[in-house]
Amino acid sequence: MTVLHRKLDHPILIFRRSSSVRRILLAESFWDVEAAYGRVDGVVKTVTGYCGGSLRKPTYREVCEGRTGHTEAVKVTYDKRKISYASLCDAFWETHDPTNKEFLNFGISTHQRSVIFYSTEEERRKAQESKIRRQMKLNRRIVTKIIASDGADFFTAENQYQKYYLQKYYRILAMDGGLVIGRLAKFIETHELLKKTRLAIEEVIQDLS
């Protein structure tokens, strides 16, 4: 599987388990990560947010200022019948340069870093195996961290940062309006969306009609 998107600067990856599906969180630039994984077959839902810090319900500004200990993240719910945890881990390395030493931050800030958060021992093992597979293809050391998290420290970002590119730059899709309308209509039917996101998509469909 390949994530067709430009390389990112500061991603973070987190996976979550639920009753019928599994969840993954990725981040910074969380707009880019959300856009990349939103196009992967088997992904059901994406939500941007903040993970790993000490403050409850932080704001985007607080996180970017490095005062909360959070990292920008994207929670992705996926259908495990269509895509595996291991495949999503493998796709993670395609979204950024995991050898970039800027991810280490040297204690300055954690809001932009390369991390995989896991919630079970099985997830930790698969994430580590994926990291090793990727490391064997590179001549520089991967600096991505693999860290335990139960998901309770993930907080949803403000509405304006959800489906950011869809909300801000959808008009470029008008080059093939008919195709876009059909795909957006299907997207609404098959994905769980925040109310504001759904309204934004419906507005796009109306504008392109």
UniProtKB/TrEMBL annotation:
It comes from the Eukaryota. This is peptide-methionine (S)-S-oxide reductase. It is an enzyme of class 1 (oxidoreductase). GO terms for molecular function: peptide-methionine (S)-S-oxide reductase activity. The keyword Oxidoreductase applies. The keyword Oxidoreductase applies. Gene3D superfamilies: Peptide methionine sulphoxide reductase MsrA (3.30.1060.10). Keywords: Oxidoreductase. Residues 27-168 form the Peptide methionine sulphoxide reductase MsrA domain. GO terms for biological process: cellular response to oxidative stress. Belongs to the MsrA Met sulfoxide reductase family. One of its GO terms (cellular component) is cytoplasm. Pfam families: PMSR. Its EC number is 1.8.4.11.
